[in-house]
TrEMBL record:
Coiled coil: none annotated. Residues 161-351 form the ABC transmembrane type-1 domain. It comes from Corallibacter vietnamensis. PANTHER family: OLIGOPEPTIDE TRANSPORT SYSTEM PERMEASE PROTEIN AMID, OLIGOPEPTIDE TRANSPORT SYSTEM PERMEASE PROTEIN APPC. Gene3D superfamilies: MetI-like. This is ABC transmembrane type-1 domain-containing protein.
C-alpha cells in the first residue's frame, strides 16, 4: 500500500514538474517568501516599516537620484542584529536631501533640496576631525521613486510583501483547521450534525465576504493580527463544504468499513484513513484561498481597516496614491497593484497546476 502511495505521489510530482507555469509560479512564490522574511536585508531603507520620510523629494519618478546628508542618530538603542534583520532599525540616522554643499574647515555648508526650482535654505554642521564630507554625503538612487511622503517606494514594496504573503499562510491555516473540523463532523456523522453545520455554513456564506471581514475586524480591533484572524474566519466555509462532500463519498468505502470492523475510533478513522485520501481537492482549494486572502487584505487596507500606518501594505499604498493616476504619476499606485496582481496570479496558476497533477483521471 505504501509503495502504491509513493508511486502516486511521485507521479503527481512528475506531472507538476512538467507544468511550466506551475513550476514558474512555485519559484516566484518562493522568491517572494524569502523577500518577505528578509525584507529589511534587501530594502535600501532598513528603518522600521521603511518609514524614513523626506518631504522635499516626495512623488519622484523611478530612478530619481539625489545627494543625501546622513546625520548620526542622537540616541543609540541596544537593538540586536536579529531584531534589526526581521523588524528594521530603531535608531535611525537622520537623512537630509541636499542639492549643493561646500566644506570650509570643519564646517560643512549644505543647501537643502527643494522642488520646482526654488532655492533651498543653506545650513551648516560641524564635522568631527576624523569625519570627511564623503563619509556623511552619499548619492542615493530611488529605483521605484518616492511616495507622497518622500519614502523609498522600493523599500516599502519589499517590506509590504510581508503582510500580503503571510496573511495567506495564516488565513489558510485557520480556514483549514476550522473547515476540516466542521466538514469532517458534518460528512462523517450526518444527521443533526450535518444539518446544524450546513446551516452555519449557509448563513456564513450568505453574508458578503468583505462585509463579514469588516465586522470581525471591527469586533477584534484594527491591527496586523486581527486582519489575519478575520480573513481566516471567513474562508473556512469553502474548505468545510469540500471536506464534507468528499467524506460523504468515501465513508462507505471498503477500507473505512474494514477500519470500523477492526474497532478503530472515529477520530482515528477520520484522521488516519479518510483525510489522507481526500487531500487533493483540499490542497487545490487552499491555493485558491491564498489568492483570495491576499485580495481581501488589500481591500481592507484600501478601506483603511487593514494594517495601520506606518506599517507598509500594498493595499494601503494604492489607497494613498490612487489619486495620482490622473495627476501624471500613475506608477505610485500601479507598482503595488502589479505586485498584488502577480502574487495572486502565481497562487492561481499553482492551484491549477496542482489540480492537474493530483487528478487521477488523467
Amino acid at each position: 500500500m505504501s509503495h502504491t502511495s509513493n508511486s502516486l505521489g511521485q507521479l503527481a510530482l512528475l506531472k507538476f514538474k512538467q507544468n511550466f507555469w506551475g513550476v514558474f509560479s512555485f519559484g516566484f512564490i518562493t522568491v517572494v517568501g524569502l523577500i518577505s522574511i528578509f525584507a529589511y536585508a534587501f530594502a535600501p531603507d532598513n528603518s522600521q516599516h521603511a518609514n524614513q520620510m523626506h518631504l522635499s523629494i516626495h512623488s519622484k519618478k523611478p530612478g530619481f537620484t539625489v545627494n543625501m546628508l546622513t546625520m548620526p542618530a542622537m540616541i543609540e538603542s541596544n537593538q540586536s542584529s536579529i531584531s534589526k534583520l526581521f523588524f528594521g532599525k530603531k535608531d535611525v540616522q537622520t537623512e537630509i536631501p541636499i542639492s549643493d554643499y561646500r566644506l570650509e574647515g570643519d564646517n560643512l555648508f549644505y543647501t537643502e533640496f527643494t522642488s520646482d526650482g526654488l532655492q533651498g535654505i543653506e545650513k551648516h554642521v560641524v564635522l568631527n576631525k576624523t569625519v570627511t564630507a564623503n563619509d556623511v554625503i552619499k548619492e542615493k538612487t530611488f529605483w521605484f521613486g518616492t511616495d507622497k511622503y518622500g519614502r523609498d517606494m522600493l523599500s516599502r514594496i519589499l517590506v509590504g510583501a510581508r503582510i500580503s504573503f503571510f496573511i495567506g499562510f495564516v488565513a489558510v491555516f485557520i480556514s483549514l483547521v476550522v473547515g476540516v473540523f466542521m466538514g469532517s463532523l458534518a460528512g462523517y456523522y450526518g444527521g443533526k450534525w450535518d444539518a446544524f453545520i450546513m446551516w452555519i455554513i449557509n448563513v456564513t456564506w450568505s453574508i458578503p465576504t468583505l462585509l463579514l471581514v469588516i465586522a470581525i475586524t471591527l469586533a477584534l480591533g484594527k491591527g496586523f493580527w486581527q486582519v489575519f484572524i478575520a480573513v481566516g474566519l471567513t474562508m473556512w466555509v469553502e474548505v468545510a463544504r469540500v471536506v464534507r462532500g468528499q467524506i460523504i463519498s468515501v465513508k462507505e468505502m471498503q477500507y473505512v468499513t474494514a477500519a470500523r470492523a477492526l474497532g478503530y475510533t472515529d477520530f482515528r478513522i477520520i484522521t488516519k484513513h479518510i483525510l489522507p485520501n481526500i487531500l487533493a481537492p483540499v490542497i487545490v482549494i487552499s491555493a485558491a484561498n491564498f489568492a483570495a486572502a491576499i485580495l481581501i487584505e488589500s481591500g481592507l487596507s484600501f478601506l483603511g481597516i487593514g494594517a495601520q500606518p506606518p506599517m507598509a501594505s500594498w493595499g494601503a499604498m494604492i489607497k494613498d496614491h490612487y489619486n495620482y493616476i490622473i495627476l501624471g504619476k500613475p506608477y505610485l499606485a500601479l507598482i503595488p497593484g502589479f505586485c498584488i496582481m502577480s502574487l495572486v496570479m502565481a497562487f492561481m496558476l499553482i492551484g491549477n497546476a496542482l489540480r492537474d497533477a493530483l487528478d487521477v483521471k488523467h
